[in-house]
Extracellular solute-binding protein (Hymenobacter jeollabukensis), 398 residues
Amino acid sequence: MSAEHIHLKGITWNHSRGFVPMAATAQRFAELHPHVSISWEKRSLQQFADESIQQLAERFDLLVIDHPWAGFAARTGSILPLNEHLPAAFLADQQANTVGHSYESYGFSGHQWALPIDAATPVAASRPDLLARHGLSVPKTFEELLQLADRGLVAFALIPIDTLMSFYMFCCSLGEDPCQREDEVVSEAVGVQALQMFRELARKVDPACFQRNPIQVYEAMTQTDELAYCPFAYGYSNYARRGYARQLLHFHDLVALQPGGTPMRSTLGGTGLAISAKCQHVEVAAKYAEFVASPGCQQTLYFDNGGQPGHLAAWQAEHPNQQSHDYFRATLPTLQRAFLRPRYHGHMFFQDHAGEPVRQYLMHGGDERALLQQLNQLYRESRQMQAAEPQAATAEQR
């Protein structure tokens, strides 16, 4: 008697890094388990942002999520704690082979809410051919970056969410991680300095950057011959692979604020694979999640189909690095020190609303202290949500 046919539905984001590896792993898993089929749907970054994981979990069995949802997930019970459905030895390997804080980022309230199948943080990118054409090298310090920007060769993402993540980066790099206190995002002294440095750089780039996310920055760098360097944007190893885009990008660690200093600390991104609490076939879904996150799949099938692995073995393996001009080796130090942003229930409200005021300041200037007070008010509101009833929030998927 043949086994009952099981069909699972998943939702991910619309990029070769987000969709293709999920489709490829689903196909292979179905070949290995003929009674199972898995279909993946995709949404644009903005479409994914407009619907919370609680709403998506009503309609999908598998979800690719952003780690700041961890606190929301723990509060609402919309996805399953994977530590109750996956082998302890497997999770121990995942934790031991985390890329930076990637594994930890999906842990909250004593449970693991997703597997870190994808690791990312803002890193630097360059067009080596254009730098060579201009007789220039990759900048090492913030001052060298400003000089390169003066020549019109620099671009980076300045839509609200990326602006906020970069503001966090400047604060971290100045020595103070944001959102560590209950009533203040960052101290006034560090906040003012971070904003001023950020605006000094932002004033030197094409205003088109204020409408671009990281993907659009990389497309502009590869489809034209005008932009030679991006100092920080969430990394996409696809653009370092021959044949993906018109021109190759090479990726690097970040600049240092001062000569001889340590490179800047960016804000961790990446994605995790979660299982809906509404899933009717949890055992099969868990086996698929284990398959996708396994070190063997991560450094071969997952990577070969456009994925950006979340397992450390894949970042250190020869094959992914050979195929991506050492993307993973070059940027692993950036990942290992990246800042883990807050994940408490309510922080999604702050993340969704705080980027635009910073973006307006970067475009038009203003009173840094007044802006910090505005951010602090939003932050306090988000903190108060921890005591309120669960509610939907929005986020932009990385």
Q: What stands out?
A: Residues 303 and 309 are 6 Å apart (CA to CA). The chain has two domains: 6-120+268-329, 122-267+342-385. Residues 122-267+342-385 form a domain with the D-Maltodextrin-Binding Protein; domain 2 fold (CATH 3.40.190.10).
